[in-house]
Recover the amino acids of this structure.
């Protein structure tokens, strides 16, 4: 972002105060990691009952299958798929449950597409020249890392506050080399924004140059509300089918931030053709997913109300941390135009846009003060933020007092970095 | 195999008796599945204590890490790697533990190799023309299925009873397009044979046309003894390193037939370069493996003695089933030269070579009698047994009485099919 310039004397005073506060901050000897959207121990405790499940002697799935053994449905336990039907916005026939990582499902879909081609396509994605994915920015670094790993070109598309700029998207997808698009449609990582119905309708119905264009719809925060206002989004699977593009959407979710980050379930919902294709590919890779862990989730969560109830408890633990960030930023930066930050209604992140050219400096200062932030640029393809402006703050893991201290520290670092930059600019 | 021909009258009488016995067999109305090497419920019961592990409140790994959460080592829990160090023949630094499938680790190594290339290689395996894998036969169908899926050409190499025919292997690997070789070195699937020290030394030290040639060493039955005689094999990792080919071997194993088929652990041991490369690749795919399941295994198995003790219990359940197969085959087929079958000292299979051109007929007859066998040819690349001779019998899952009944039935079907074929041959 660009900031209107304060008067020189004001700026000088502001920089001096920031320097003093920063020196005090450094002396405080903080050591706080705000890099990753990890659940806190208190959040993980909410699911501790799973640690003794399914229980000795209690290992049969509903159809009588022995979850301890090989085989069964490659798609996962039917009752587990039914459990997540509302979360996924799909019937259990259109859902596949893998092991502990939805990222792995996204990765594998891409790898299979590169080597084998997808339903509706005429060749493996890797058989022709380079292909391209659209990347709404700022976005999730691990999405971009998969593209980079496999030489998939990334084109950044600006987010608007209610999803990607669809005028840009609709123009870019006419190019046949564009085969995919990353989306985190709800409480997006990191901006927190939720795609509007109009945006989702346009994604479902837009014309694409490639017949086998896919939307990687990473609904990672579908039930991860932070307030009483529970954002809902339009059902991309339904809309795409209505628009004649049933195979376009690949809907992903996981329980990593519902039950256990290290021992959750990754999920995929998609058209019949996509699921059949993915099952056929995966069946070359493995005899099947860990069914015991799916049974554990069924026994623990029971039904959609069980999921919602658990998420309400998560919210109680998370909301105060987001409030602490908001309070610290508002206290120091409100009205300055040094920074603009998100006030998310859900998800795991606060996104901060500081004055252009200052993000790397803020991360560096924070590090000096013992506050670890993700490297600036991480939220952009190839880790390059053209404006050096965006910061991603992850307040979930540390205790609330630590989050408050870290947020105040980050605000000081922003104050320092931007005042410093504006002073330098003024001297040129 | 080829059978010396009995005299016509003998043969006629034999065929008549077999037909009578087959009719009786069909009336018995058996329904027995002998297709897959699955543990029986009684075997799975041995690990039921795992179903309540790690236990509520007991979720920390040795270094204090919280196994419930994201992150930690991509290689897996250090204590889990230490637990399997003897099984893998490698120190924990050279071991990686994934999720519930060692096949998935083999698959992923190949997929990464196709798309990215491997340490010591100069291009992705998929970048040049078709590559080739050597396939000792009969072998494991799922190995061959991965090759078929990705267009990797397969060349069959005969097994000798102590491993592949190394004169053939040493000649074939001089071709630079040969990049890999499948091996099940101990209690091989399905022949039950164990590779001799000499064979393993030759695999370790042979000259290959490709600098990035890899041996996929699927040691699936490393501790799966069926008798007091506990076969041991030479350490391919050590021998390859000594021979100047440290990156050649990829050693795989799993606990699917130690603890739970559906909820075990897949393992890889390899050189430092291979492990670092695989970790780098996998870290694009997932934040890490399911650490809780690794902790469960550590708490349950404790140490190598724990593994050996558990395997002794498996042996008690499995050995009588293999004895039942041996007894039924000996009773009916000994001295006939209609069939030759393995008497494995370990593993999960009995391999039967019937008179050439009769295997498909045996499977068909067995099916009529309610005994399900894997399709003939399944143990060969492209599912084509050039002699139509090999059958794979999996006696682990059904109860011992069922196994005995099935084995007697299969012996009748072999008798019938071979006598029928020899009679027909005689008439031509």
């Amino acid at each position: 972002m660009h900031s209107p310039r304060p008067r020189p004397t004001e700026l000088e005073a502001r920089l001096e105060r920031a320097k003093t506060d920063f020196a005090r901050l450094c002396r405080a000897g903080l050591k706080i990691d705000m890099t990753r959207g990890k659940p806190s121990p208190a959040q993980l405790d909410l699911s501790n009952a799973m640690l003794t499940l399914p229980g000795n002697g209690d290992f049969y799935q509903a159809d009588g299958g022995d979850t301890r053994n090989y085989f069964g449905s490659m798609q996962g336990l039917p009752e587990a798929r039914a459990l997540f039907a509302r979360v996924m916005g799909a019937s259990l026939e259109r859902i596949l449950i893998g092991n502990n990582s939805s990222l792995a499902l996204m990765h594998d879909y891409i790898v299979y597409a590169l080597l084998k081609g997808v339903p509706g396509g005429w060749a493996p994605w890797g058989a022709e020249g380079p292909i391209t994915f659209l990347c709404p920015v700022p976005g999730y670094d691990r999405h971009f890392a998969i593209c980079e790993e496999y030489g998939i070109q990334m084109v950044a598309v600006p987010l608007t506050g209610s999803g990607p700029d669809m005028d840009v998207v609709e123009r870019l997808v006419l190019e046949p080399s564009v085969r995919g698009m990353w989306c985190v449609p709800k409480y997006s990582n990191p901006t927190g924004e939720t795609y509007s119905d109009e945006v989702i309708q346009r994604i479902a119905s837009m014309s694409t140059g490639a017949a086998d264009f896919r939307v990687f719809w990473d609904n990672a925060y579908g039930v991860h509300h932070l307030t009483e206002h529970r954002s809902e989004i339009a059902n991309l699977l339904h809309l795409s089918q209505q628009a004649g593009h049933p195979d376009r959407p690949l809907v992903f979710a996981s329980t990593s931030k519902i039950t256990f980050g290290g021992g959750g379930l990754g999920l995929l919902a998609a058209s019949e053709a996509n699921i059949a294709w993915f099952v056929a590919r995966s069946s070359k890779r493995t005899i099947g997913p860990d069914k015991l862990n799916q049974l554990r989730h069924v026994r623990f969560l029971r039904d959609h109300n069980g999921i919602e109830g658990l998420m309400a408890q998560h919210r109680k633990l998370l909301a105060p941390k987001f409030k602490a960030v908001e309070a610290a930023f508002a206290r120091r930066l409100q009205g300055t135009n040094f920074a603009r930050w998100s006030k998310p209604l859900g998800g795991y992140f606060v996104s901060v846009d500081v004055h252009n050219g200052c993000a790397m400096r803020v991360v560096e200062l924070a590090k000096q003060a013992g506050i670890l932030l993700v490297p600036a640029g991480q939220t952009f393809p190839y880790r390059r933020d053209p404006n050096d402006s965006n910061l991603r703050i992850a307040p979930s893991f540390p205790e609330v007092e630590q989050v408050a201290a870290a947020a105040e520290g980050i605000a000081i670092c922003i104050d320092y970095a931007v005042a410093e930059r504006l002073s330098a600019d003024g001297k040129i």
